Amino acid sequence: MILTAAYEASAAANEAPAGGVAGWAADLMDSFGAVGAGVAIALENLFPPLPSEVILPLAGFAASQGEFGLLAVLFWTTAGSVIGALALYAIGALLGRDRTVAIAARLPLVKASDIHRTEEWFARHGTKAVFFGRMIPVFRSMISVPAGVERMPLPVFVALTTAGSLIWNAVFVLIGHALGTRWHQVTDLVGLYSKGVLAVAALAVLAFVVLRVRRAGKGEHRATR
């Protein structure tokens, strides 16, 4: 429990809570080393509420304490990202286009034309979406599902996911390594970025709903005239 003790000591020194996701990740890394960091990131892909911006700097901090090598943590966290993404890709592939369209048809305010536009957009921009999507909280997990539904060639998906994940992981691992016991400072800053992304997404969904409801209302008005 060397890393857990070091984590708790650094948390106490910085008045950060010793527990939660970071404490859980510290326990994983204590038990399995760099592989534990990879397991945590794989689970983060499957359960987006687990924030990589907490796990990755902590892994960098662990490397700075000599718990495992820096290259090992970069390898295993990237492998974890790819494994988690492949699981979601498989879900999308098993779901398939027909089931996706059928599910979407049952959703309120969603039309078949929305699905067709989404497919057209993904056909044009899917590679960029998979690569850059790996660097956007929440969407880094979600983008794997439509890639599976649209059956993006697996070698392309793996290559793009690996490249995007390595960049994202390396940034946070290296910052955590450089900050040492102050690793949690990057978590605080990126938390603002994550909240901003979620706020923009929420506003986009709200705008979609408002516009769709207004158009539906106008259609009913014309029908009654």
Descriptive report:
By secondary structure, the chain is mainly alpha-helical. 83% of the residues lie in helices and 0% in strands. It has 10 helices and no strands. Helix 2 packs across helix 3, helix 4 packs across helix 9 and helix 6 crosses helix 9. The radius of gyration is 21 Å and the shape is elongated.
Explain the layout of strands and helices.
Layout: H1 2-13, H2 20-32, H3 34-46, H4 52-64, H5 70-106, H6 112-133, H7 139-142, H8 144-149, H9 154-179, H10 184-224
Helix pairs in contact: 1-2, 2-3, 2-4, 3-4, 3-5, 4-9, 4-10, 5-9, 6-9
In quaternary terms, these chains amount to single chain
- What is the strand tally? 0
By helix and strand content, what is the structural category? Answer: mainly alpha
Query: What is the residue-averaged pLDDT?
Result: 77
Taking pLDDT < 50 over at least 5 consecutive residues as the criterion, the unreliable ranges are none
Sum this structure up briefly:
By secondary structure, this protein is mainly α. The protein has helices at 2-13, 20-32, 34-46, 52-64, 70-106, 112-133, 139-142, 144-149, 154-179, 184-224.
Short key terms for the protein model shown above:
225 residues; single chain; 83% helix; elongated; mainly alpha; 10 helices
